[in-house]
Amino acid sequence: MAGHSQQSNGVGALMLIAVAVICLGIGFFIGTKNTTPTAGSAPGAAVAPSAQAGKDSTKIPVGDSPTYGPANAPVTIVEFTSMQCPFCGRAAGTLKELADKYPNDVRLVFKNFPLSFQAQAKDASRVVMAAERQGKFWEMKEKMFADLQAYRSGDVKDLGAKYAAELGMDVEKFKADYDDPAIVATIDADQKLGESLGVRGTPHFFVNGEVVNGAQPLARFEEIVKKQLGEVEELLAAGTSRDGIYAAMVDKNFKSAPAPQQAERKAEPATEVHMVPVRDADYAKGASADQALVTIMEFSSFQCPFCARGSETIKQLVEKYPNQVRVVFKHFPLGFQQQSEPASRASVAAGNQGKFWEMYQLLYDNQRSLGEAKFEELAGQLGLNMDKFKADYAAPATAEIVKQAQRDGQSAGIRGTPGFLVNGIKVVGAQPLAVFEDHVKKQIEIAEKIKSDRNLSGEALYEAVVEYNKENVAEAAPAAAPERPAAPAPKIADDALSVGNSYTMGPANAPVTIYEFSSFQCPFCARGAETLDRVKEEYGDKVRVVYKNFPLPFQAQSEPAARAALAAGKQGKFWEMYHLLYENQRSFREDGLWERLAGELGLNMDKFKADFDDPAIAQQVKDEAEEGRSVGVTGTPAFFVNGTRVVGAQPFEKFKELIDAEL
């Protein structure tokens, strides 16, 4: 281990009445989802819409695309999907659930949008479109998304033929349709339409023309559908014809696609840096914590085929840099991969018997057959104690380890797998070795300098390098001036900050007041504290320091440390604890550290523990941090010298310049 719904309100009824009146009055039929499907079609699936389905939109046309749900539904959701996109697979299940929950109100329309970097995506689109010719589009789509990892292990056409047989289709016709150039032309036309509408990634949806990006939860889609149903009622009441609802709603909701250059300017910077702690329950390989110059966080799902590929690259990296690179595994099971979370628990259970990395490799080697029986088989291969393995696999504590690792990934913006943090620098996807090597070489150079200059190692070095990368990347980020928020004012108003209940050092009438916003687990804050000590020695009673807690969310022990300092302050020992905390930063993961330090200060332990757990203390920490955010503090350390902002652990000379100007 490393440290070791409901139905729509009234619209459905209105529709049924309208349909009945039309059918009785002029004798034509509009199908609904409850009509008998065509032979071989999915229950509730509609065939390609005819002119009877109503007026199509010229902006986002349904055309001859596969549909699911009644042709006259008041809400039409057009989805642009890449058939190799795992997030599209997740969204497909959500949309099916939505359509089944609103059987008379929602129609789904499928459009192909194969992504260029997903090698089998277009072939997979050919599979589902060939199945559509035999009325099995939705069934085939479901099967293809359920077995994404099979795409890379064989020919997609053969995989589709296998599923076609399982679905009772004419396999020879399926193969002929798969090869039909007309299907390729349909896919290309879908993609061209999507691009003209501003689709850049998948999944991408238009709900009656309203744009929805990404695999949103069911609740979000329900919220939009309910809003759209209300707007449809208003259009019908205003005299819009029933068959013109879809076109009218698209005209109302969709104006035009964003200009390409506009989308580029608003894109997030290519590089992100996040600090994620190494936890006691995490497993690491490669260089030891004290030896490592580069820490790579690997966020993976054992059922993800791209993660298997990424794991091979990471293995090569460790072999090439055995004394510099440490790899820390973080579980990130994907919801649509049913065996990924159980597989993570199996690896943890094996790790409890010293076999994490062995199980890690076996799980990737056996991706296509994962399941509880397979986990036990693999445990047997590793010679594990089976009773203990089964108990640990089922233990709530094991599930919590997996959940915590996933929360760590989510805090760093990880959305899919594999994802990596190289000394905090985010790398997305199964990138080639050269990409990782480029990062590693640069990070080794940076880490060696910080290690030499500050005599750091282990977690303290890791945190310091990540902090350096944050500053460096921020300075090198691509310019996007119109979209970036204004920089905080260099000087704040005299009354923007107040002492309140915060601890101070120096007389209240001192001509210079320095507000310090710090996190006790931040290595740069420790350096800033040393600088302020020198300021006090140099200027004495001319300076008053006001300490404000600003614990950083990615530093797990920073908030408890802040409470420990305030609890010591209740017994007149705040500044003593302040210095002890900075001196013991490298021991923050040590159990009982706060009590040990309180003992060194001779504090009443019962009172210290009670104050440490006092909600009022925790609230003071939150209030001080919020006060910092109100004046633009986003990181630590941050200082205000008579209101002049000083960001970062600046040298003594910077403080001297400002103080002398005030005096």
UniProtKB/TrEMBL annotation:
By its UniProt entry, which PANTHER family does this protein fall under? DISULFIDE BOND FORMATION PROTEIN D (PTHR13887:SF14), GLUTATHIONE S-TRANSFERASE KAPPA (PTHR13887)
Question: What is stated as this protein's family in its record?
Answer: Belongs to the thioredoxin family. DsbA subfamily.
Indicate, by first and last residue, each region the UniProt record lists as having compositional bias (Low complexity).
40-54
Q: What is this protein called?
A: Thioredoxin
InterPro entries per the record? DSBA-like_thioredoxin_dom, Thioredoxin-like_fold, Thioredoxin-like_sf, Thioredoxin_domain
- Tell me which residues make up the Thioredoxin domain: 36-230, 257-445, 483-663
What keywords tag this UniProt record?
A: Disulfide bond, Membrane, Oxidoreductase, Redox-active center, Signal, Transmembrane, Transmembrane helix
Q: Where do the TM regions start and end?
A: 12-31
Question: Which parts of the sequence are annotated with region: Disordered?
Answer: 40-65
